[in-house]
Design a protein that fits this description.
2% strand, 46% helix, two-stranded antiparallel ribbon, elongated, 3 domains
């Protein structure tokens, strides 16, 4: 059987422009996930996304999303280059990194703090792959349904957990929206790799709509601080009172302030009807025993 012919150009999943693969796309970890062995986002778009190479958290997040390793040694070496991200990706292209994914990251020293924590707190070594083993279980198949290959299930799980960590998904509605988003992400990547441009555009449109309506875009995180954000007063009070009743600050004002206020209001009314003003507060104003506390 002849090997499937790979096109020498592809459409970037971010800018949607068709560019030559060899010159405009970095190498991927393997051709098992990316059929042509190259990332789906072009070099120019990746440089734009990274923006500030000194922002370690942002760079690590990008490496996780494109499934390439973060290597502390190469990060330090690339800093002095005029195009630090391009130099970093060039260093990742060396033979010893062939086939390495994000799970092969090496967070030496101070950058250990930036290793994304899992719910089981497994990521404590310098090489994450030593602690994380992807295994297809019946629960994973039930979660995503039939029809997905092993590599697609890996993509679904990786993307789901990365988004969960970044957005702190809690509500059932957001969990379902995230699952649908993950499936669309896999389907649109497959369409793009197979050269089905129209299918990709339709899937990408639906992907962006769900991303927007579910509040999972980066801009939504900046605005709300959480994946769902706090958009109503009821949510604000819920956050304030979720730890129980908050006792109000004790009242410190003296009773005579209240009496004087009543007198001033009464004098204003008396003046309107031509009556003589009071020089002292009325005798029948409610009184508070100042010896009582609270």
């Amino acid at each position: 059987m002849s090997k499937k012919k790979i096109k020498d150009s592809k459409i970037c999943s971010r800018c949607l422009m068709e560019k030559k693969s060899k010159d405009n796309y970095y190498m991927a970890a393997s051709d098992e996930i990316h059929a042509d062995g190259r990332l789906p986002i072009c070099k120019a778009c990746l440089r734009e996304i990274v923006d500030d190479f000194n922002d370690v958290e942002n760079l690590i997040s990008i490496m996780r999303q494109i499934d390439r390793p973060f290597v502390r040694m190469h990060y330090e070496a690339a800093k002095a280059n005029k195009n630090p991200f391009g130099e970093y990706m060039r260093l990742l292209g060396m033979r010893q990194h062939n086939g390495e994914t994000y799970l092969d990251s090496k967070f030496d020293g101070e950058f250990e703090a930036h290793v994304p924590k899992t719910k089981n707190d497994l990521n404590k070594s310098k090489n994450i792959k030593e602690n994380i083993k992807f295994k297809i279980t019946p629960d994973i198949v039930i979660k995503w349904g039939d029809g997905f290959s092993d590599s697609e299930l890996y993509q679904l799980e990786s993307f789901y957990h990365a988004m969960d960590e970044a957005n702190n998904i809690e509500t059932p509605q957001h969990k379902e929206s995230l699952k649908l988003l993950c499936k669309l992400n896999v389907l649109q990547n497959n369409a793009l790799q197979n050269g089905k441009v129209n299918d990709f555009k339709n899937l990408n449109t639906q992907y962006n709509k769900i991303l927007e309506t579910s509040g999972l875009r980066p801009i939504d995180r900046k605005a709300g601080g959480e994946s769902a954000g706090i958009r109503t007063f009821s949510q604000i009070w819920e956050e304030i009172e979720k730890d129980g009743f908050i006792e109000p600050y004790p009242y410190q004002e003296k009773q005579d302030i209240v009496d004087k206020t009543i007198m001033y209001m009464g004098n204003y009314t008396r003046k309107l009807v031509g009556m003589q003003s009071m020089s002292e507060p009325p005798e029948d104003t409610p009184k508070v025993d100042e010896s009582d506390e609270g």
